[in-house]
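Q: What does the assembled structure look like for these inputs?
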Amino acid sequence: MSLKPLSNLTLAVLAISAFSVFGSVLFGLYYPPVIVAQGEAHRIFYIHVPVAWVALYSPAAGAVAGLLFLFTRSERFDTLVLVSMKLGLLFALGVVITGPIWASTEWGVYWNWKDPRLMSFFILLLTMGGFFLVRGFTEDPRRQSLYSAVMAILCTGAAGLTWFAIRVTSPDTHPSSVLGAMSPRIRLAFWVGVIGFHIFFLLLFFLTYRIEALRKWEREKG
Amino acid sequence: MKAVKILVVVGILLLMGGLRAAPEDEIATDPVAAKAEALVKLAPRQQKDEIERLSVEDARSMRDYLIGKAIREDPSAGATFYLYEHLASIAAIDLAEKRLHKLLMVFVIVLGLFTGFFIYLLIAQNRLIKRLSQNQPSEGAIRSSPVYRGD
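A:
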């Protein structure tokens, strides 16, 4: 493996991607109108929902990589599993931090243990934690990769449970899907946030994969 | 002079009578008045839903209409509404401030989380590349090695 520096074009793309989150957050701050019932606190929506989407997609990407690892036993896919789960955990932490802060203004409580959507996301978070525990406590590298692939698939099951909980169960406190009920300005700001956070996710994915691949190479070199 | 005073008083009375337009006429001609009257007749839950759909200008106009109507029916209500509005604005400003604090907290935490992770990645990558570059032998070291290489 050679250590090539990043090209200028790659650096430019990375720099633009790094600002995608800031740009989308600022856009959500200034462009859409305020929802009177929630005041300025409703602008948390433009952060919370895109971050939640990425937190649900990332384990799915890890599961695809895990399945590919199980079929091919290529270490590259194990690295992809690890990177997907790391970023999934990061974004999931973002969701459980922003959600209760928003909830405290909207519902008056930080967390509702009886809400199926909140509980399903909590289960997802626990499953992600379980992934890192299993990976950390497995010493044999081949078993580590195998168990990681299986855990990534389990995490995706939890992510799917959360996704459907938002759409299938009747609302308790957490709102149901609002995709169809937004005004044009709110919808535009929402999609700008989604795109911004997804671009940022891709940037983090690129950098994290690079580091994990280098670390793996360093370990193999001895 | 006395006649002038009587005429002034009569004129003021006529003006006040003119200002107190018949409510039915006002509702028929003014859409804001009509909307406000319709809103008053709704149940509280429906009122809440309708209020959330109002624009700021409509809400302000309807508020002015309803207060004006209440004062016409009871002139002493003016002082009560004045007091209520100022007290309610204190509560509204406090609520808006709390919501803004929550929003700023979310911004700081989320941007701190992602920016912190991004900076960690850049530093970790830098250290790793430095370590790997230091562990790799240089071209000169390879050429000057005492091991016979056949050249």
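Chain A touches chain B at residues 3, 18, 21-22, 25, 35-41, 43-44, 47-48, 51, 90, 93-94, 97-98, 101-102, 104-105, 200, 203-204, 207-208, 210-211, 214-215, 217-218, 221 (CB under 8 Å).
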